[in-house]
Design brief:
The chain is an alpha/beta fold and 265 residues long. It has 9 helices and 8 strands.
């Protein structure tokens, strides 16, 4: 029996740090068992970059959206451009969207308006969302709690993912109750991430995804290096250890979850 497929549900493969060896990165990913990669956009230019890569490389899918740190000048025209791009067959989600209170790149009211507008777009297009949260959990949950009842029935229990989850157990529980999935990245392997490991160990098995967030957040085994999809195996192995299952079983479950959430077929 062949090894189960791994799916990297969040990697910024369009970033310039991959320009010199992107084909080799993808080859290493395939050798590691990573057959599919989702590239989330952070602004309109990166939407186009990600779509170009999806046309060039088999197994890549795309999320289109405006990151909270890119939304200072968010305008209605941007939303219409996103709507048009989201109709492309390579697009499986709206993202990376959300709130970021760590960096002072965009005023909070502007972040809220951009997030709410893109959530409405996701509901209209019946697409799940990929959510960024940095030091903004209370406000993000408040917005999601207001939005989730308005989402169409087809998105019931597959509203989206809180990517690179790093908040509290209470936030995790509230997000799961709303119908969201949690994505785990390299920090779950870090030596001082005991609280995060407690959460990763107890998340319902159908509510967990694995992702690299490359080129950022390389796992402990390769910390300090540029992250890439091949390193997803380290995250998968750590989650398997935490949850008392084999790496093969963990890969099968997270891939099943990714396919269900993003309707990958």
């Amino acid at each position: 029996m062949s090894a189960p497929e791994l799916i990297d549900t969040h990697c910024h493969l369009n970033f310039h740090s991959y320009d010199d060896d992107r084909a080799e990165v993808l080859q290493r990913a395939k050798q590691a068992g990573v057959e599919r990669i989702i590239i989330p956009a952070i602004d309109l230019p990166s939407c186009l970059e990600a779509l170009d890569l999806a046309e060039s490389y088999r197994g890549i899918r795309v999320a289109v959206g405006i990151h909270p740190n890119s939304c200072k000048d968010f305008a209605a025209s941007w939303l219409e451009e996103l709507r048009a791009l989201a109709l492309r067959q390579e697009v499986i989600a709206i993202g990376e969207i959300g709130l970021d209170y760590y960096w002072d790149k965009c005023p909070k009211p502007a972040q809220h308006r951009a997030l709410e507008a893109q959530l409405e777009l996701a509901a209209a297009l019946e697409l799940p969302v990929i959510l960024h949260n940095r030091e903004a959990a209370a406000d993000l949950l408040s917005i999601l709690e207001a939005w989730s009842p308005t989402a169409p029935a087809i998105l019931h229990d597959r509203l989206g993912v809180l990517h690179s989850f790093s908040a509290s157990l209470e936030v995790a529980q509230r997000a799961i109750e709303l119908g969201f999935t949690l994505g785990f990245t390299g920090p779950v392997t870090y030596k001082k991430a005991d609280d995060l490991r407690v959460i990763a160990a107890c998340v319902p098995q159908d509510r967990i995804l694995i992702e690299t967030d490359g080129p950022f957040l390389a796992p402990q085994q390769v910390r300090g290096k540029r992250n890439e999809p091949a390193f997803l195996v380290y995250i998968n192995e750590k989650l398997a250890e935490l949850r008392g299952v084999s790496p093969e079983a963990m890969a099968r479950q997270t891939s099943k979850n990714a396919k269900q959430l993003f309707d990958l077929g």
